[in-house]
Amino acid sequence: MQLVFFGPPGAGKGTQAQKIVAAFGIPQISTGDILRAAVSSGTELGKKAGPLMAAGKLVPDDLVIGIVEQRVAQPDCDKGFLLDGFPRTIPQAEALAVVLGKLNKPIQHVVSLEVPDEVIHERMKGRGRADDSPATVQHRLDEFRRLTAPLKDYYAAKGLLRTVNGVGSLDEIAALIKSAIQR
Ligand code: ADP
After folding, report:
1. Ligand 1 centroid to residue 67 C-alpha, Å
2. Are 159 and 108 in contact (CB under 8 A)?
3. Domain spanning 2-29+77-182, CATH class
């Protein structure tokens, strides 16, 4: 099963992704985690991505597309995967469709975690990750609205969008997600 998790920073994508991959036995591919690992280990990718991430800006499309293209071709992705934090722009979504088309593993469900802005702001305050300073958070939310939110219409038009209420207990939300992807 090929899944995409979609939602603003702080929507709970990462947390819910962990539950779903455990339940379905597929790997979680988080471009944010891969980029943070590259920054900590000081690779060329990390040197390019680090300052952009610290400022709450998106990393260039070609870099993240390259990461995902390599990752989905690994043998552990044979039975599917869950993409968390990718695609984040229309060009990323278009590139993904090409890559997955070649592998004959199309996206089946795009799960959009719906969380009101006020709740997002509250959650981000409490998170305390290095790239979670107030200015960075604001920038990431702006980037989300400008570049990532249009993906909702893009995937809705393809019949792939499953909207799920992202406010509730972790187990409640996980149950909603499971039913949305088993319909
Ligand atoms: P969150 O969980 O708050 O949504 P992520 O961990 O997914 O954040 O991403 C952290 C940062 O990594 C982003 O602010 C961005 O700089 C970079 N990043 C992650 N995924 C992508 C992507 N698909 N395209 C561009 N930049 C990305």
Report:
1. 13
2. no
3. alpha beta
